[in-house]
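Q: Could you fold this chain for me?
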Amino acid sequence: MVKLIQKEEKTYYQCEECGHIYETEELAQKCENWCQENKSCNLEIIKYSVKNNLSQSDINLNKEELNLPQTNDNQLTNRNNIKSRNILINIVFGVLIGGSFIYALNNLNIEQNNILPTENNFQVTNNNTIQTNNTNNTNNTIQQIVYQVLPPQGFQTRLAFGDSVKKMIDCGVIDLEKMKKLYQGEIPEYIQEAINRGSDPIVINQDTANYLLNLFWPLGLSNKTEFNKNIPFGEKDLPYLASTGGWWLGKADNGAEYFNKCEIIKLTPEQEALVYEVAQNTFRPCCNNSTFAQDCNHGSALLGALELAASRGYSKDELYKLALQLNSFWFPNNYVKIALYKKLVENQDWPLSDEARINADETQINTDKTQMNTDNLNPRSSVSNPRESVLSNPRTSALIKEIMSAKYSSISGYLQNVEQKLAQLNLPGIQNQGSGCGL
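A: Sure. Below is the predicted structure, expressed as structure tokens.
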């Protein structure tokens, strides 16, 4: 049953499975039928969807219902240079640019040197409202939680692209001339460096998230593995998935031509089994599919990242942590809200909050090293043990897996277990918005 939406005396219809909005009920019903049957979006249907600029008040809901997400799946992160101690992070909707979507992180002011919260400044009352001492405490705590989820320094990894980007170019899944069109006539420096110097460690932050998405996406889409033979989609469906049909940056106009065809990263049977297990148990808040069912760009991208990490010797726990780090910067609004729910309702700290502190400490150490003679200072040794200890606690690893599971990271789990419960708390200072699935 599609959802009815009223906007300025005009009626729209929304697919309740993926959130796409149409001008006719017939198209919305076709979309919903396809989504229910195939657990994915059909490009030939969703190309008729309207740009979703409807506010929450425009959507007719029952009292128990929530708004479905309003942004689009092929979101990319705009590069925002960090030029001051204050970092503005805005959570806004995607806009279509060259077949891909770009989002900016705005509206939440983060002080880089904030001391992260050691206690809950909120109290949930019996009538399910938030009680705080003052508005400043409320806003500060929200900002501190955002800082934990999206640390300005990002997340340091021990991953490097190696020759994988060059192999993707050789295979044809990346066409540099088409990529130039996406980036206004030139290859971005970051991507060029990944081609020329694949040995540089990958850092996940708001500057690199867009590029990582566009490099991991074709990797997950095209890399040849045995488990890809088990995908829940038929060969005839591949050209119509957002992951394959939406990838037009290869020599062929439809990415389906490259699905599971390129030998870019060779995984051992043990590594394949590890990736397969993690991919089946990690989700993304734009649909109800696991990473393994890569029907959209974020699914393909995360699968590619897991394959690269497994080939570099990542453990199972490290793969789950990497998935959370990437999803956090690809779906910032969703994971900030998950962190708020965990803190305010369950009184659980974000499992990567220690990682955020460590990254900030390491940045300060490296800054100090450039300002004075530090022959006896080894910044790597001073921070490596704390970073490794992030996953040494079984409870931390279990919490990361829970957050990446369908309970919180699928669209239905997120809406039911996070969005709906936060809405009932009348949390001040944050809007109910999310990330949707589709082009």
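A (continued): The longest strand covers residues 3-7.
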